[in-house]
Amino acid sequence: MEKRNTQVQLAPGRISRGRVFVDLIKYILFMTLLVFLLAKGTTTLGYNWQWYRIPKYLFTFTNAGFVAGPLLKGLMVTLRITGISLVLAFAIGLVTVLFRLSSSFSARALARAYLELIRNTPLLIQLFLLYFVISPIVGIGAFTSAVLALSLFEGAYISEIFRSGIESISKGQWEASLSSGLSTFESYRFVILPQAVRRILPPLTSQAVSLIKDSALVSTIAIYDLTMQGQAIVAETFLVFEVWFTVAAIYLVITISLSTLVYEMEKHMKKTLA
Known about the structure:
With 274 residues, the protein is mainly α. The chain contains 10 helices and 2 strands; from the N terminus they run H-H-E-E-H-H-H-H-H-H-H-H.
């Protein structure tokens, strides 16, 4: 009986390792096919690959030491924009959902108007409106306009994620917190939001990844982020495929790193609660 039970316990691990191996094989086959099609397509076009020219656009080493290239400089701008925008988007999303769930009619109406306006218009139009119309009036620059546009746009979607998480908490949690003498604000802070955040962490991560990718649009208002630097290098060198594949790889590394970080946080939170 003990031997049989041991075999049953080991089965899930074997199945899991088997699935990982199958997924790895599928990924390798897919990438092989992609590389084959790409190589065939560029051969047909007569494209001459020049990957050896790419490293200097990332970084160089001189007598003074490490020198960041235009792509790394653009990456720093992208990270600054996305970092600030992410914090503001979370704050805007949280305030919006609290307004929407409040008993005040004016707060609910304001939140609803904001959500409908932002979600039903393209981000590019909002970015142009802020930069070309509003920024000259209030005296803000391109960087601030980009941060505000991204924050307002992503904040609308984050508020809906927060709302779904808050509404998934049972009414018993509300009743228990209020009956223990906590105010509505304290109930949100100490009881409801901590539970909701654990449930909505995966969709919040997806929205953060979306923000990183949407940040490429700020190149349209002459901010030299990663995408704009890529465009400038392509215009100067005509290294179309090499530069854009490098830019895509950098975005991929950022998003995968963020997803991995949140996954580890989620695992840690589950262990803490166990």
